[in-house]
Each structure stands twice: as structure tokens, then as C-alpha cells.
Specification:
- Keywords: Membrane, Transmembrane, Transmembrane helix.
- It is a single chain.
- The protein is an alpha+beta fold and 135 residues long.
- It is built from 1 helix and 9 strands.
- The strands form 2 sheets. Strands 5-4-3-8-9-6-7 form a 7-stranded mixed sheet, with no helix packed on it. A two-stranded antiparallel sheet has the order 1-2.
- The longest helix is centred in the N-terminal third of the chain and has 20 residues.
- The chain starts with 9 loop residues before the first strand and ends with a strand.
């Protein structure tokens, strides 16, 4: 049994490959590259999840102090999940505001929070809360 010959000629260090074989190499490379790229975590940013205490100010921003971890900045329009499991973007999390507590906008509460470290152009970094869950 002999192997099929691939049309190639060697002349002074040059290799000639047929157009069909070159097209096959390109096609296989594109398929392998596409499959590999589909498994890349593009857009996915894992969050560190921690329990702790959050305190918001009147403008809606604030700080989160993890039980065992860093203090993190909470932006005013944070993504949050209420105690019924519904997701919200912006507004004041229900565990941090109660219509009956008018005048007490600085109310704090224990929550579960997801945060990640943000890099600054100067090379530093700081933790930023991207999600809160009310108990």
C-alpha cells in the first residue's frame, strides 16, 4: 500500500503546493480557529462574590465592605437582585431604601455582592461592585 502523492516539487529550496491543497489548508485552519475562538470568554468577566455590608449615600453611590475582603466602590446605577429574585438596573436596591424611611436615605444593609478589580491607566487598581443581592 502506498501513500497518495501530494503534488510538490522541490527546486533550490522552493516547495510548490497545488491550489487545491492550499485551499484545504486554509479551510481547515479557519475551522480550527473558529472552534477555538468560540470557546474564548469574550465579554465574560468573572466577579468575586462576597457577603458584607453596603452603605449607600443620598446620590445612590456608596461602599461595600466584604466580611473578609476589600472595601469596594458601589456605583449609583448598580445591577441588583431583589429578595424575590428579580433583577433591576439602577434605582435604589429595595433592601437599602424603604418608602416609610424617608429622610433615612443613608440606610445600610447586609447583602451579597459581586465585584471585580478595575485597572487604572496609571497602573493601579480598585475594586468596583457590579452586582448586589438583597436578602
Amino acid at each position: 500500500m502506498s501513500l497518495p502523492e501530494i503534488p510538490a516539487t522541490t527546486k533550490a529550496g522552493h516547495v510548490t503546493v497545488s491550489r487545491v491543497f492550499m485551499a484545504l489548508i486554509i479551510l481547515v485552519s479557519a475551522v480550527v480557529g473558529g472552534v477555538a475562538a468560540s470557546f474564548l470568554p469574550l465579554g465574560d468577566v468573572p466577579l468575586a462574590i462576597a457577603e458584607g455590608y453596603v452603605q449607600l449615600t443620598v446620590d445612590g453611590s456608596g461602599t461595600f465592605q466584604a466580611d473578609s475582603g476589600p472595601a469596594a466602590l458601589v456605583p449609583a446605577d448598580v445591577w441588583w437582585t431583589d429578595s424575590d429574585g428579580r433583577d433591576h438596573v439602577g434605582g435604589r436596591p429595595s433592601c437599602l431604601w424603604d418608602e416609610q424611611d424617608k429622610g433615612n436615605e443613608n440606610k445600610g444593609s447586609r447583602v451579597e455582592a459581586g465585584y471585580r478589580w478595575m485597572k487604572t491607566p496609571s497602573g493601579g487598581s480598585y475594586p468596583l461592585v457590579a452586582w448586589l443581592k438583597c436578602p
